[in-house]
Amino acid sequence: MTYAIIGFGEVGQALASAFARMDMDVAVATRRTPDALASQALAIGGSVRPKTLEEALQADVIFLAVPFLEHATVAKALPNWQGKTIIDATNAYGVPVDALDGQPSTAAIARAFVGASVVKGFNHLPAGVLAADPRVKGGRRVVFLSSDHDEAVPQVAALAERLGYAPVWLGKLGEGGALVQARGRSWAPLIFQDLVKAD
């Protein structure tokens, strides 16, 4: 299984830190050249590998860590996303509900990434918390997962476990998943909730 992070701002770098902590290889890419990311990536860890966007999109599991409105541009990079798992770590705070046809923001992402299995996850924690060691207070920091593609969830949950987190399944995007989906200028109830599951 291969992994990539698209977007290398605060959230993308926090996710890269999680991979580096476990010495797991992960490609990172933006619209910038790999050389432009090299020093930041090296500072995080040797397993963080800058790639072109085209190279990074060859990964099996792809974290989407770009500003929400940029997802459509990324989606156009491939004609079909069949066989890919997209982990949506974006937040659509400030995006008008009408612009999403009243649907959860991840549903819009799922429509854009034709053929992909899309899982909402790793989006509810501030980047600084996400970058920190998830093993705290005698337990593991919780990450919430939701999806309308049930078959993809065990794979993402297993990855979360490997990275040291405690995955918690919320169900479908429009059901329990609504607890981590920003709507307009309202944050969902579980966003920013730093919870720890005891070992």
Q: What would you say this structure looks like, in words?
A:
This is NADP oxidoreductase coenzyme. The chain has about 200 residues and is an alpha/beta fold. The protein has one domain: Rossmann fold, CATH 3.40.50.720. About 30% of the residues lie in helices and about 20% in strands. The protein has helices at about 10-20, 35-45, 55, 70-75, 105-110, 125-130, 155-160, and strands spanning about 5, 25-30, 50, 60-65, 85-90, 115-120, 135, 140-145, 165-170, 195-199. Strands 1, 2, 3, 4, 5, 6, 7, 8, 9 and 10 form a 10-stranded mixed sheet that branches. The protein is globular and about 40 Å long.
CATH topology: Rossmann fold
Give the H and E element order. Answer: EHEHEHEHEHEHEEHEE
How would you characterize the largest beta sheet? 10 strands, mixed
Rg, rounded, reads 16 Å
Extended strand count: 10
Please report the number of helical segments.
Answer: 7
State the CATH architecture.
3-Layer(aba) Sandwich
Pfam family, one: F420_oxidored
Keywords: Oxidoreductase
Organism: Massilia cellulosiltytica
Protein name: NADP oxidoreductase coenzyme
What attributes does this structure have?
7 helices; alpha/beta; 10 strands; 199 residues; ten-stranded mixed beta sheet; Rossmann fold; globular; single chain
